[in-house]
């Protein structure tokens, strides 16, 4: 028997999350068939099964097994594969140094916990990834929210509360909006604040050779830290932090996620190194992502859909409003074997639930035609007049 307080909490989950949807988890729809078009993942460059990457990972697994099961702080790996791969990632992103972490979540929480404290505020875009908010909480810092993609509101907050750590996503994962990084970087520089940019959904998709939006905009000298989950365009299991060498040398000894977590395994590092080569060599993958996204965006505009962001992004968010409307939209598309990702609380605010379509390089012309047909067919499933305003106006 569970204690009463825990039972009540679990019961609330089942009542609130499952009871309103006939006992089904809102995230669980149909099982995709063999010919389904999958737009519910983050493998933007279609690299998860790339032969050269898989071979590099398998070869290293055979050679080294699972590797040393310990925290990286105990290893003196001056000339090791991990150190070399980190150096290559730093050069790739045009930053001084890089550190690999166990996940994007660990990278974000660990970095913010290591550079922020209760003496200075942490300014976060309203829609910054939850791991960044958790990092501020872990550091004991006062989190100050500013309105989404509203640099003038950020500037007002900084004038009021003083310099601190400013944190934004380059590309927001739920809605596909792109941050006004030039304006935000200027505020950080003028106020003497630290600037952290999460490039999880932009690394590999923008910039020279896929180096990211910070590099594309020429802001590498104005951004203090770049973080990323490599489980997106890099289709790998790791997180990344890029920034000043002195700080990142200090990071493993101050970040609890680095100290108390087992390091990446050798075959994970081999996969990342091989992926970096493919990303830089096969630029056509990035070009195809954006071309495919343009096809779907243009079709949605012609059909009168209300999208959260009409931008040069591979993320297309269809705002449905309520969870019930989102489930209805999802089920209607899945009946056509088109699968998107449901976003509801706590990922989205109340009554801002949405269905996210993640465009990738593996989509053929036939796939795009099927998706466009499905979107046209379910056009009136959720009437646009019932949808709230796009998130970008929040």
Summarize the structure.
Helices cover 42% and strands 13% of the residues. The protein has 14 helices and 12 strands. The radius of gyration is 21 Å and the shape is globular.
List the helices and strands and how they pair.
Elements: H1 4-18, E1 37-38, H2 51-64, H3 81-93, E2 97-101, H4 104-115, E3 122-125, H5 130-139, E4 143-146, H6 151-161, E5 165-169, H7 181-191, E6 194-198, H8 213-216, E7 225-229, E8 239-243, H9 245-254, H10 256-259, H11 266-281, H12 284-303, E9 315-321, H13 323-334, E10 338-339, E11 341-343, E12 353-358, H14 365-377
Parallel strand pairs: 1-10, 3-4, 3-5, 5-6, 6-7
Antiparallel strand pairs: 2-8, 7-8, 9-12, 11-12
Helix pairs in contact: 2-11, 3-11, 4-5, 6-7, 12-14
Structural summary, described in words:
By secondary structure, the chain is α/β, with parallel strands linked by helices. The protein contains 14 helices and twelve strands. The strands form three sheets. It has a seven-stranded mixed sheet, sandwiched between helices. A three-stranded antiparallel sheet has the order 9-12-11. A two-stranded parallel sheet has the order 1-10. Strand 3 (122-125), helix 5 and strand 4 (143-146) form a beta-alpha-beta unit. It is globular, with a radius of gyration of 21 Å.
